[in-house]
Amino acid sequence: MLPRSITPTLQRLATGFPVLAITGPRQSGKTPLARALFADKPYVSLEDPVERAFATEDPRGFLARFTEGAVFDEAQRWPELFSHLQGMVDADRRPGRFVLTGSQQFGLLAGVTQSLAGRVGMTRLLPLAATEIPSIFGQQSTADTAMLTGGYPALHTQPINPSDWFASYIATYVERDVRQILNIQNLSTFQRFLRLCAGRTGQLLNVTALAGETGITTATTRNWLSVLESSDLIHLLPPYHRNFGKRLVKAPKLYFLDTGLACWLLGIRSEEVLALHPMRGALFENWVVGEFLKTRYNRGQPADLYFWRDNNGLEADLIFECGNRLQMVEIKSGQTITSDTIRAGQRATRMAENDALPPWLIYGGEESLERSGIRVFGWHNFQSAIPE
């Protein structure tokens, strides 16, 4: 198992909460991490029909085996678990006693909200960040390699073709998760919806247009988007809320939480195709946004990331607050720093004026430097600079 950056956060929360929850998309590495980090605890998979039947028929007898604690994998598969744990932890509030994992964030969160509020430390494990993938910093690695492969651990620990893996992943996701939640009569419609979402990577979300192209209602579109977001497959980046005295764009921007999955949905199967693809710039922007999200979640922080765009075209690809000031980030996929990219970084600070810190420019090249008042970062050199 590859070392995970979220480990210190899990260890910290396990000293303060009786229950620890690890959410995230399927195959992001939740189970191996929980079993390795809490190896002293019994492991129970609630995907196992035998264990789930025991729990349903005799919950007291089932839980009597785990008075000292346990790791419950896919905890949302037995919703009654949360209310039973409430009584157990209220009687004995030893920290780090129970660990819950769940792929369907909405199912796990519903149980936590209803029964375990104030008793659980919540974490979110996304696919591997660049800093967790040793090959990212190898001599042959490129930004296109990172985007095309993505961060799912299996693609970096097993000899498997990414195209084969993503094809299986989508089929499994549709079969096991979506059908459990949504009444989808035609799976091909949902698969078309996924591909249309991938085609909107890095764009403002227009729900009406997406619904029209998919051939479904806007209500269904919003429902399906909610499921993708709750399953940690997409992230809707909100516009920054402060009004700088200009007309604002109010729609969020759509990003995938793994660019390898987005590339597969777009039919991109090789670095040669990606290098010339019209969406390469949007996918590079998506990759950078994903790295920011992973870094913040691994630290146990909320996302608190935004973008800015007004109706005059003034924009910043990413904004986050640093104390009372704002950090603007411009993202460019080109491998060369040009005068145009520098000017783009400078424009990003205009709407905030004195509230803005020196802007960042993240580009597809290797070098990091300061130029014309802008901090320039190469594609794999910015993660450590993201402030706590």
TrEMBL record:
**Keyword set includes Acetylation:** no
Ranges of residues in domain DUF4143: 175-334
Q: State if Iron-sulfur is listed as a keyword.
A: no
Q: Where is the AAA domain?
A: 18-133
Q: What SUPFAM superfamilies has UniProt attached to this entry? A: P-loop containing nucleoside triphosphate hydrolases
Which keywords does this Swiss-Prot/TrEMBL entry list?
ATP-binding, Nucleotide-binding
Q: Which GO terms describe its molecular function?
A: ATP binding
Please report the name of this protein according to its UniProt entry: ATP-binding protein
Organism in which the protein naturally occurs = Candidatus Proximibacter danicus
